Hints:
By secondary structure, the chain is mainly alpha-helical. The protein is about 65% helix and about 0% strand.
Amino acid sequence: MDIQQSSQPTATIQTNTPPEKRRKWLRKLYTQRHIQIMALLGIAWMIIFNYIPMYGVVIAFKDYDIIRTISEAPWVGLEHFKEFLSDENFGYVMRNTLGISLLKLATFPLPIIFALFLNEVRSLRFKKSIQTISYLPHFLSWVVLGGILATWLSDVGIFNKIFMALNLIDQPISFLAEPKYFWTIVITSDIWKELGWSAIIYLAAITSISPEMYEAARIDGAGRFQQMWYVTLPAIKATISILFILAVSGVMNSNFDQILVLRNALNDSASNVIDYYVYYTGLSQGRFSYSTAVGLFKSVIAITLLLIANQVSKKLNDTSLF
Length: 322
């Protein structure tokens, strides 16, 4: 009688069982404990200062004052939003906000152009000097730069002296007292402060491009401008797309610090943006619920713009945040 061998395959030993995977994960976590602690501190900071305060957003739908707690304040629904939309200041506040923000958005290509040309500089010493000079204003606060600009743009400032020496003007101009000059001052000073710093990420993306691509382009007879157009720009297209999406989502932000130090009562018609309006109505007038509603209105628009820009970028060049 023949003994028939079983046709069933013998079971293989599973080396990556769930308990084994868990032990490996715990060992890895232990070896990285110092890094993990640092990460946990960052997460705790975000939860405490970014997520827990979000509970306060509910006062946008309540009639809140400092005498009562948030839970005690009565609900008013969308009354504060309706009040803002019908406010006499709504028109020029939105005009100033969108005007300044869209002009800043129009300067988006400048850091890219600066990074492209800086990458072409062959003298390392000259390149480092340009980088240092262009980065330096970023590390100065708007309080410091605002004081510098106020001095330069005063009646006896350097700009009035230069313009009068060139016979461009007959008498000094109080630039910060004239609303028609305010947007120009805001845009140019923002470029001066952030141009070099904004170019850093593009320079970092450019350094990751393989030199062989440039070598192949040179063999094909491409000059420097052609190499920038056909090699460098396509290689950093994804970086440009991501930063542009973020820039579009920030259209409703007008850089509150900059506006606060440059504005005054004389240029209010051009400097009263939505960020300053929230600050003024919330802290100076004590209208906490109303100012929260205005801030929430701005945030909703920002999220909407982010989603639209992300979807458009995804369809056009297959690059998106999510």
